Amino acid sequence: MIAFFNLKKKPMKKPLLLLSFVIISAVSYSQSARVQVIHNSADALTATVDVYVNGMLTLDNVNFRTASPFTDLPAGVPLIVGVAPDDSTSASDAFYTETFTLTENETYVIIAGGIESSTGYNPAPPFDLHVFDMGRETSMDPLKVDVLIYQGSTDAPVMDAFETEVGLGQIVDNIAYSEYQGYFEFPSDNYTIELRNEAGTQALAAYIAALESLGLEGIAVTVLASGFFDPSQNSNGPAFGLYAVSPLGGGLIPLPPAPLAVEDFNEEKFQLYPNPVNDILNVHGVDLTDYDIRISDISGRIVSEKFYEIENDHLKVNSLSSGVYLISLYADGDMKASEKFIKL
């Protein structure tokens, strides 16, 4: 876990610490493995952390949504990794400790995720380091882009992913929090990734993956879900999104959101406000009487019509429980558009 992220609070320590660790590793061990570490714990308590390896402060002030480059680390020997608050003074301050023994010549992607706070998050899977031991830095085919997919949003439902721009269809089936989906080898092109519920019937969100425009041909990257689907249930923490991680590390790259509208529906006119909403959800740009309206929760369960009322251009949603919902408009049995809203 060398050269992990940017240093902020203690800049004079980091160069010496890292240099010492590199020299000790190079002199003492002939075996090595390649490792990239990604900080994806959206808990406010772990927004910035210190990392200790075998009792040595190795990485100081590691920031959320940043990544290390792939780096050589000693293989075949125990590495005791401790993660501590950013004001720590020793490895004894660590709130998380785990021992790893890396395999020589293997390539690892390690993603930090989960919740350390005792309250304020729902659900709250514990902070952990999630290891993928078949990592890549370059694509298997130099004309393609290899994409490792990881579901890192603690409150997102089990999801499928479909590519809808060039017609690749389903690329991920039923991925849950902390799970990796092995590498998908994409031809160098620009794509739209649509996330759907577990059954694949309800669109949740969509994002643009401009692999060709970003010049990623011949590269292997990680694309991960990050943040909270429902920030209101998670201490108003960072919102959900898809992010790409370069093998060179640095800040995670947000994928731009794409409209969920389908066919020839004018998605630019379909707007919901206020969002989040307490009582009245206004719908701009469409005549609701022209569509069948379905409101579902993020698991895809249709909410009974008794929980909302249509009145002109707005919906009374005061009877809905707090949470994240999707409003979908249907005509002749086909979904024309779908948008997410949060009920406070």
UniProtKB/TrEMBL annotation:
Domain DUF4397 residues, every copy: 33-116
Which keywords accompany this UniProt record? Signal
Domain annotation Secretion system C-terminal sorting: ranges: 272-342
Stored Pfam families: DUF4397 (PF14344), Por_Secre_tail (PF18962)
> Where does the signal sequence lie?
1-32
NCBIfam families reported in the protein's UniProt record:
Por_Secre_tail
Protein name, please? Por secretion system C-terminal sorting domain-containing protein
Q: Which organism is it from?
A: Pukyongia salina
